[in-house]
Amino acid sequence: MRINISRLSKPFLLGRSSTWVLLYALVLLAFAPNALGDSARNLHLHYLPGFVAGSQRVFRPSRVAVLPATGAMAAGDINVGAIYSSTGTVTDTLNAQGLGKVVTDAVTHCLADAGLDAVPAEQSRAIPPDADFALTTSIESVSVVKRFGEEHTVHGQVFTMKAIVRLHFTLSSRTHPSLFEATITGTEDEPPAKVGHEVFFPLETEPEESLSVALSRSVGSLILEPGFRRVLPLVNQTAAIPATPGKIAAALP
To answer: Residue 83: is it exposed, middle or buried by C-beta count within 10 angstroms (0-12/13-18/19+)?
Structure first.
């Protein structure tokens, strides 16, 4: 058997049509993101103190250790939503970083505003020696979607936006692993729903602000929960009501 060495050593050459196809594919890969108009935006969420009415100056100063928020969305760069054009095309993807710290800071701030001695704690389910209670928070979902319509008014292009933050809270003591437990959802809808025949304009126009409102509602609503208020000593609570973790646990059904 004879092998033609000269034929095997020749370089592989693309035909003219194949070369143009390859070049066209490379151009598409380079410019596709811009052509589609899809860009990534990083949202920086923040807690709005006192946003939930009745959530400030509620409790007597018991020390509550606030453990770092957990959940699949707590760490890393997380996609939380998108902005859609009037044709339904995604124009911006919305991301958020470090949601665990954002939520932990929000919970700590909220508890302090409510009158409690809230202190950040290490990642552990054990209650620190100097704390009466421990509060754990699990991030279940964080999302925001903004959709533009075709209509334009003097105020700009019409849009709708919905933000949702769902958190799971567990309050514990050394003798009772679950004094209180609840999942609380905070939402923000733009524009606000009509009241009768009265139509409202959007209060928030940016996804970052809308999601911050939803976060503040979810966290602040914890203070209004009857079960949470029943466990912790209130400012106007009489001395006859249990105030220590042991007595509170014993008083629970």
So the answer is: buried
* Residues 144, 207 contacting (CB under 8 angstroms): yes
Strand, coil or helix: what is 196?
coil
Q: What CATH code is assigned to 59-251?
A: 3.30.160.150
Domain boundaries, the chain: 59-251
- pTM over the 0.70 mark: yes
Left, alpha or beta for 89 (phi > 0: left; psi -120 to 50: alpha)?
beta
- For residue 135, count other CB atoms closer than 10 A to its CB: 24
Q: Indicate whether 23 pLDDT > 80.
A: no
- 222 DSSP 8-state letter: G
What residues does 97 pair with on adjacent strands? 77
Q: Are 150 and 86 in contact (CB under 8 A)?
A: yes
Q: What's the average model confidence in pLDDT over 216-238?
A: 92
